[in-house]
Description:
alpha/beta, Metallo-beta-lactamase, Chain A, 3 domains, seven-stranded mixed β-sheet, five-stranded mixed β-sheet
Amino acid sequence: MPSRERNVTGIVLNLLMERGVYWLFDCGEGTQQQIIKSPIRIGKIEKLFVTHLHGDHIYGIPGMLTSRSYQGGESPLTIYGPKGIRQLIELILETSQAHLGYELHIVEIAEGVIFEDDQFKVETAELDHRITSYGFRITEKDQPGKLMADKLKALGIESGPVFGRLKKGEQVVLPDGRVLNGNDFLGPALKGRIVTILGDTKPCPNVVPLAQNADVLVHEATFSEQKKNLAMKYDHSTAMDAARAAEEADADALILTHLSSRYQGEDINHLLQEAKQLHRHTYVAHDFWNYVVPKRSVKE
Ligand SMILES: [Zn+2]
């Protein structure tokens, strides 16, 4: 439930630097209101990933879709979600006679790779919740090093086809007989990052492979360990369960979300401390909070 301090689920992966867009994960009621209060532009949401079809994760979708249209969003939007998402969205749009000014694609997902291009790969696996719930593993692909143009210019070589070949790491023989090796003119390659965002779940075997070596794991922590019985009963996790998963997966930062509205003020700090006993690098997300995923250090 939303509370005065915390809204229901809506997580943005800010990819402005990488591809000029945002990816949204779940869209609970009130998400567009929260977006309006943030620097995020709704028209720049390129993809919406839906973990599962419980109301606190999806009741904000129709309003977000139609506002995106009013605000001049013209680029296509793709929604990925469990079976049933298509019927749900099409029925609402049709019944309310909403017409979107952009292409809407809806993909009903199964486990495996659901999206891949030369920048990113998104994989899913099923979790263990009362209804079908997915986790998403977003992998940024490694990027080749930058060409050191200054170093080449100092050797009297101007940009052109030679630059292109060196950039691919090729060996180039110049007309004057000099031999250049591409690798001598490339900066360090950047290793891609991994972000794992999970839907609601109790501890289950697919969590660790989804989060293996992730730079960030976003994991629900609906209850404290004291309420483990409730977590088990409602197919949710405790803060400690989340921390255990982060440890097992060797993930770096753990971000706890989806706290029960019973936890307010100092209780939230208790949840954090509980998780930190097992995984030191842990945060509790609060509304409008950001975590910057650090660039990975140089790949040797
Ligand atoms: Zn749920």
